[in-house]
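Subgroup meeting minutes
Present: P.N., E.W., G.H.
Scribe: E.W.

1. P.N. recapped why we're keeping a running log of single-chain structure predictions: easier to compare across weeks, and new members can see raw inputs and outputs side by side.
2. G.H. added today's entry (125 aa).
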Amino acid sequence: MTIIDDDPIVQALLEEFLLQRGVRSLKKAADGIEAKALYLNAMGKFDLILCDLNMPGFDGIEFLMHLRDENFAGVLLFVTGALTTTVNAADQLAKAYKISYLGYLRKPINFVELDRLLMPLLSTT
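Output recorded in log:
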């Protein structure tokens, strides 16, 4: 499980949420560059990624393209406060790239909705 977000408060909130649901293996990155390095070091073994779209340097859309190039086999969920046009573009790209994609949640995070989306995945890990 991986959290990619440049906001340390969002990272901490998502981490606590996931730890409370039994996730024990958790990686965090502050941007796409750091996430790409984590992904390559893990030899592509990311099962679930929660990713922001607006990050400095290497944003979520650039990271999405990296996932496509690496034939990402996990599941992706965007958690973002990005503009609707950016979210729609990322949504369409994820589908076009045939990435297993849960969709997106807007910030501030609705943890009830996040729970609904993730529980089927977390109960199998």
